Amino acid sequence: MLPALAAAHPHVWISMKSQVLYDANGAVIGVRHAWTFDDMFSTFAVQGLKSAKPGVFTPEDLQPLAEVNVTSLQEYAYFSYAKADGKKLSFANPIDYHLEQRPDQLLTLHFTLPLKQPIKATTLDLEVYDPSYFVDFSFDEKGRDVVVLKDAPANCAASIKSLNEGQKPPEVPLGDPRLEVPNPEDWGKSWGAQFANQILVKC
């Protein structure tokens, strides 16, 4: 659903929170995202959906839409790229996903990306971005618990790197060669990569 909308309208804004998940042995096992969409996308997404109360949607009402979202994101590696001690990590397909409608009518997509293999690491670098920059991500710095290390060892700490408005990339027209998505193995060289939001964990 996201890529289809982006093709028609090159700007979807997402405000995000993330949890880095650990197991009992202190290994990283995955990441859980909460992505809140802008008001225009949230309104567009629920058009035609049925609910018991007009304009009010339960997670059950929204589950088919959540399914469409996570399925469409697979092609784009869920816009999530991670390295542990400099080594690239691979995520499995998402689990525990659902959409919720907030009191302000915005939609938030919750989903967990498990790592294919748990890993213990001194440093973990997680970047979230759209290689083509159709989707604009930013940390939800107005809220609390923007980044949480869930069940992490006591010596682990997280920091974030985000862009202020003055550092955002200039708008470029659809079809511009800079927006072409490269081979997924080479997305780090994409247009959007230079404007990535970064979570850095050190243990």
What are the key terms here?
mainly beta, 3 helices, 203 residues, disordered N terminus, six-stranded mixed sheet
- Would you identify the regions where 5 or more consecutive residues have pLDDT less than 50? 2-10
Shape: globular
| Overall tally of domains | 1
Strand count: 11
User: Considering DSSP H and I runs of 4 or more, what fraction of the residues is helical?
Assistant: 10-25%
- β-sheet strand percentage: 35-45%
| Quaternary assembly | single chain
Biggest pleated sheet: 6 strands, mixed
Rg, Å, rounded? 17 Å
Order of helices and strands: HEEHHEEEEEEEEE
Describe this structure in words.
The protein has 203 residues and is mainly beta. It has 3 helices and 11 strands, in the order αββααβββββββββ. The protein is 14% helix and 36% strand. Strands 1, 2, 5, 6, 8 and 9 form a 6-stranded mixed beta sheet that branches.
Write the topology of this structure.
Blueprint: H1 2-8, E1 12-22, E2 28-37, H2 39-45, H3 59-73, E3 80-84, E4 87-88, E5 95-101, E6 107-119, E7 123-128, E8 135-139, E9 147-150, E10 157-161, E11 197-202
